Amino acid sequence: MLEIDDTARAAHRGTAIGAFRASGLGGRDPGPGLGPRRSEAEALLRKRWDGSSRDQIGSAEPFRAYRDYFARWGRTYPVILQVESVAVKGRSLAMGDPLLEAMFIAELESGVLTACHDVGAQLGRLRLSAATGAERFVLLGGKEKPIPAGDLILGDELGIVASVLLGPDDRTRVVPATSEALFVAYGPPGGGSPRVEEHLRDLGSCLRLACPACAVGEIWIAVA
C-alpha cells in the first residue's frame, strides 16, 4: 500500500504511519448513530480537558510528540487548537460531510494526525519521504506552497499528496462524489504504532456510523 524510503528513516526514525481504504462511500448520508457518537465525543473532550489551557493540552501525550515536531518549524500542531476549540470554547464537532466528521471525531479523541484522500483521483503507489526543501504542492483550496526541508511528505507518481506540516493536497481531496477513500494516520517518534492502530480502528467504527453502506479495509501499519 505504501513504502517508507531511506530519507524518512534517516530524518524521522521511529515514526509510525498507518492506513486503510474504505469503499461504498458514494451518496452518503449520516447514519443514525453519528449524531449520538458526536455528542458522546464532545462530552468526553469537555470532561477530559475542562479548564485546561492550550499549553496543558499540548503537554499531554500524544499531543506533546506532535507539538515538538511542529515546533521545529515554529508551528503549532493544529489538532491542539481544534481540541481547545471544542473542549474549552464549546465548538461543535458537526461538519457538512459525514465522512469528514467521522474522521474529525476520531482525530480529536485520539490526538492522532489523520488525512483522507480520494482513491479515484488517480491516487497511485505511495511513498513516505523527507522533504528536501525544493518541493512544492497545491494545498486544499488551490494555493501552491513550498514544503519546509525535513518535513515528512507522502507522494505518488503524480506528485505530493500530503505534508505533515501543511496537510493534504487539492488533487486527491475528498468530495461529495468520492466513493472510495484512503485514510492515513501519522504518528511521530514517541507517538507509537499501537496508538495509531487503535485510532484507525476507532475511525473505522465512526465511518460505519457515518456511512452505513461503507466497507472498511484491513489496517496497514509501518514504522520508519
Topology:
Elements: E1 2-4, H1 6-12, E2 16-23, H2 34-49, H3 54-59, H4 63-71, H5 78-87, H6 98-110, E3 113-118, E4 126-130, E5 136-138, E6 144-146, E7 152-156, E8 159-163, E9 167-168, E10 180-187, H7 193-210, E11 215-216, E12 220-223
Parallel strand pairs: 1-4
Antiparallel strand pairs: 2-10, 2-11, 2-12, 3-10, 4-7, 5-6, 7-8, 8-9
Helix pairs in contact: 2-5, 2-6, 6-7
Can you walk through the features of this model?
- The protein starts with a strand and ends with a strand.
- The strands form 3 sheets. It has a 5-stranded mixed beta sheet. Strands 2, 3, 10, 11 and 12 form a 5-stranded antiparallel beta sheet that branches. The chain has a two-stranded antiparallel ribbon with strand order 5-6.
- The chain has 224 residues and is α+β, with helices and mostly antiparallel strands.
- It has one domain (2-223): Phenylalanyl-tRNA Synthetase, Chain B, domain 3 (3-Layer(bba) Sandwich).
- Helix 2 packs parallel to helix 6 and helix 6 runs antiparallel to helix 7 (193-210).
- A hairpin with a 3-residue loop joins strand 8 (159-163) and strand 9 (167-168).
- It has helices at 6-12, 34-49, 54-59, 63-71, 78-87, 98-110, 193-210; strands at residues 2-4, 16-23, 113-118, 126-130, 136-138, 144-146, 152-156, 159-163, 167-168, 180-187, 215-216, 220-223.
